[in-house]
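hey so u asked for the seq, here:
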Amino acid sequence: MIILGIESTAHTLGVGIIKAIVNNSDNSEHCEVLSNEYQQYTSPNTGMKPDDIKEHHNKYAEHILRKSLETAKIEWKDIDAIAYSAGPGIDPILWIGYHKALDWSKTYSKPLIPVNHCCAHLSIGKIINQAKDPAYLYVSGVNTQVIVQDGGKYRIMGETLDIGLGNMLDKLGRILGLGFPAGPDVEKLAKTQTSSNFIELPYTVKGMDISFSGLLTKCQQLFEQGKATKKQICYSVQETAFAACCEVAERAMAATKKDELILVGGVGANKRFCQMLETMCKERNAKFFKVPMSLAGDQGAMIAWEGFKRKNNHPKMDVNCRWRTDEV
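ran it, structure tokens below
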């Protein structure tokens, strides 16, 4: 079965095409990514303005679609269904993806499958790594959650109490005068420092929940008062925030007796983060999985795969900007 997926929840517009393969002898599933094209809205220092992103996505939608079809070397007649991100996300941006999906669905007579963006990150991570029953650490712009599957539904064991890790890094980037998205720049600056440059920052873990707002406020104070350099702040923020995420992930694994952890979401592209989680898992004799760089951030292939998983059981809806993982 071939599914086309459309990603449009924030600053990335993506169109991916996957071929879902099911082995009839043991019902095992495999995902072959035929194409995964995307265009990302970037800004030197102003962050995300919904009107600018809408203009960007409308401008590139047809181009990204054509490129994805060409890369996959298929035509519309070969596609069985269209999946799209129905939420959560930025409301006006979600509607861009929905209307493109609806137009293409009507034009080419293809069934439409709304999927949860967060669940798509989880399911692509599981199938790509062929994991059995993992715990997930999901870190993106808005979301920072530790998740497990329980009775066929996702259960959130712990999450951010204020802002997501990715958004915290983007806000830090604005304070420090970095570009958007700021994660890659923060990682680059952090790599120039060692433990001798570490600055003590607020570390807030409550059970399996986590908070980053105090850390961000402290960084702003230190930078504006000239008490720390950009490089010192970036290094210290990574070490502090990532350690907190490792702690809540380990607690969730201990509580649920999971011996597999998958890191998913855009912040999962950070090499230092992966290193810290891998060390924690080794100490627990657990397996650590991550997704390839091409599948770590927001993209259409994960939407397509989640569409395949939900093809026979999906809600009747258009978009829901507050659609939580545990509501699916």
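The chain has two domains: 2-122+296-327, 133-292. The domain at 133-292 is CATH 3.30.420.40 (Nucleotidyltransferase; domain 5).
lmk if thats what u needed
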